[in-house]
Amino acid sequence: MVFGKLFGNGAKSGAAISYRGAASFLTGASVGFYALDAGGRFVFANQAFADMLGRPPDEITGGLRLHDVLAEAIPPGTAPYDPFGGLGVAKGDVRFRHLAGTQVLLSIEQAVDAGAPGGFVARAMARDAEPAREMASALARSELGFRRFFENAPVGIALVDPDGRLTETNRAFQRLAGADREGAAGRNLTMFVVPEERAELIGKLRRLAAASSGPTTADRAPEHINLRLVGADGKERVVATFARALDEAAGADGATILHFLDISEQRRLEQQFAQSQKMQAVGQLAGGVAHDFNNLLTAMIGFCDLLLLRHQPGDASFADIMQIRQNANRAANLVRQLLAFSRQQTLQPKVLDVTDALTELSHLLRRLIGAAIELKVVHARDLWLVRVDQGQLEQVIINLAVNARDAMGSGGTLTIRTSNATKTVPERFGDEEIPPGEYVRVDVVDTGTGIPSDIIGRIFEPFFSTKAIGSGTGLGLSTVYGIVRQTGGFVLVDSLMGHGTTFTLLLPRWTGPAQEEGPEAAITRRRDLTGAGTVLLVEDEDAVRLFGARALRNKGYKVVEAKTGDAALDIVREIGSTIDLMITDVVMPQMDGTTLIREARKLFPALKIVCISGYAEEQFRQNLAGFENVHFLPKPFSLDQLAAKAKEAMRPPA
Asked: Which of 134, 369, 412, 514 could be a cystine partner for 405, CB 3.0 to 4.6 Å?
């Protein structure tokens, strides 16, 4: 100790000289010094110490003892002046009384030596302890604030050494890693990263550690990398990671600080959006393909009908023509499936009692599912009506029943249950939000193997199938989804591995009047399909136009043909007053059918029109809002259906 060396050098003969020299040196020091004799009296006090107590130095050395200026009782010890309770060198904070009556906290460093020269046995150095204590308190508060900020940060934070070992982590990172602080400390960060991404992370950390000695480390933008963390709980999370090397000048020794942002939900939404775009693209592709197929099938079915006019049963060619027609109809059903999952199929809805529909269908279902599976159909009382396409609804139930059969290979029970359901508030099931309303509920429940949780979100994707190659097209459930959604309903699924699966259909309740049989059906039933008048037939597909023209001429109509919308509009301008009916395709190059209808109606507002299309009726109806006497005939159609629709459209209004 400096002041210890100044107060005596161990030589008795020079003690007085040493004391006077030390006293002269310390009198003007900025740090307080004092010395005590064996009785605890001050024998020396410099000006700095005297100022701390608010007293002159002479007053302090004029007979005051240490305990006279102490603010607290003297702790027990070998000497009454020893505030630390023992001989030797000691340090601590002691409160003194200021002359003004206040207390002064001084940091004391004291040496006690009973054999010291100069008539004193204690030497002490004193400093004002308040600034140091305030600084320590401020530092503690700052550290506490930083610790709270660090621990409660919403993003994961970790400090790693150059080898990648974790030296400090916060709670958010521990949640991501599935480990507490003790479980994460000392482990290498790469242990929490999926194996295929560890090499990239190690390379990134090494480059950052090598760059940490650069002069502008703090100015560099953090390195970004997306990682997949696998916690101790086995759950995988996708995190956006931002890494920055800490400067060696700050004592970091090549350490790197990393921030982790959990983007698992964002990644899931991105994948969902990409999947939605893919399904939309596939739907558009399927719709386009189906449209072209519908044109081909219309021509095939139509010309078969024309051949059947000349080849009656018993004719050698009759059976061959019927085979062609039947296969064309089977192809038309496949096209309807393609349009169903793209929600562009043409529906022919009618008011329906689901109980009656399921009763009629149950006989077919029993044959489909086989004898090993028990079929139970549970009908609710007073079931509400729905307005759906009966054929499409039956297709939905059949597809679900076939899937259930395949899931119950060794037998089981298939239950179809109906009920009324009222939703008073919006409800969300996965990605679907069901608005409030009244619904007819149909549950299709099987006791099969169930659907694994990792694929249940993909079951409605087109062409996705868990069946063996060649055992399914992957269109079954996507068709179900497309039909039900186009009807305005919802499809929900609930499955538990080993316990079975429940598909729930929610169909909007029909509150309007029950529909009567349409005029087209009545005309077709009476088989009186002849007519008279001039028909303008507009169709860009040659085969469809040729068949349509021949079919209408055979029924007694005068037919004027047009291959494009522009050519048809010229004909309307020229002989529009003599045209009784215009039959036009909706999808055509250059001028489409809806545009042609608008322009023709400007010239002749009372012109009667039939639209033919392979797409859904709702699509063009929205573009023709406000137009009356516009009928629709879906492709593919037969000769009788075309003739019946023409006769229906030309009937005078009731």
From this structure: 369
Q: How many CA atoms lie within 13 A of 12 on its CB side?
A: 2
- Give the DSSP per-residue string, 36-95: E-TTSBEEEE-HHHHHHHTS-HHHHTTT-BHHHHBSSPPPP-SSTT-TTSSSS-EEEEEE
Distance CA 618, CA 477 (A): 23
Pull the structure tokens for residue 287. Answer: 């719709």
Q: What is the 3-state secondary structure (H, E, C) of 100-130?
A: CCCEEEEEEEEEECCCCCCCCCEEEEEEEHH
Residue with tokens 């729905």, as numbered in its chain: 386
* Closest among 26, 9, 30 to 18, alpha carbons compared: 9
Q: CA-to-CA distance for 286 and 284, rounded, in angstroms?
A: 5
Gap between the terminal Cα atoms of the chain: 121
Distance of CA 169 to CAs 102, 158, 363, 464, 643, Å? Answer: 46, 4, 65, 43, 79
The phi, psi pair for 534, rounded to 5°, reads -100, 130
Q: Which residues pair with 537 in a beta bridge?
A: 561, 583
Collapsing DSSP states into helix, strand and coil, what is residue 462? coil
Q: From residue 535, how far is each of 538, 544, 592, 628, 653 by CA, in Å?
A: 10, 15, 19, 18, 18
Q: How many CB atoms lie within 10 A of CB 187?
A: 15
Tokens representing 83 are: 């505030």
CB 110 within 8 A of CB 84: yes
pLDDT digits (tens, 9 = 90+) for 417-455: 999 999 888 888 766 788 899 999 999 999 988 888 777
Question: What is the Cα–Cα distance from 313 to 209, expressed in whole angstroms?
Answer: 90
Contact yes or no for 349/388 (Cβ under 8 A): yes
- The residue written with tokens 């204590």 in the block is 133
| Cβ count within 10 A of residue 132 | 13
Q: How far apart are CA 400 and CA 369, in angstroms?
A: 11
- Over residues 24-40, the pLDDT tens digits come to 667 767 788 888 887 77
Which H/E stretch holds residue 510? Answer: none
- Assign 3-class secondary structure to 130-185: HHHHHHHHHHHHHHHHHHHHHHHCCCEEEEECCCCEEEEECHHHHHHHCCCHHHHC
Region for 26 from its dihedrals, namely left if φ exceeds 0, alpha if ψ lies in -120 to 50, beta otherwise = alpha
Res 560 pLDDT > 90: yes
Q: How far is residue 602's CA from residue 607's CA, in Å, rounded to a whole number?
A: 10
The H or E element containing residue 628 is: none
* Residue 125 to residue 106: CA distance in whole angstroms: 10
Cβ neighbours of residue 456 closer than 8 Å, sequence gap 6 or more: 493, 495
- Asked whether the predicted pLDDT for residue 473 surpasses 50, the reply is no
Query: Is the preceding omega at residue 162 within 30 degrees of 0, hence cis?
Result: no
Q: Say whether pTM exceeds 0.70.
A: no
> Which residues face 558 on adjacent strands?
534
Scored b (16 or more CB within 10 A) or e, 607-637 reads bbbbbbbbbbbeebeeebeeeeebbbbbbbb
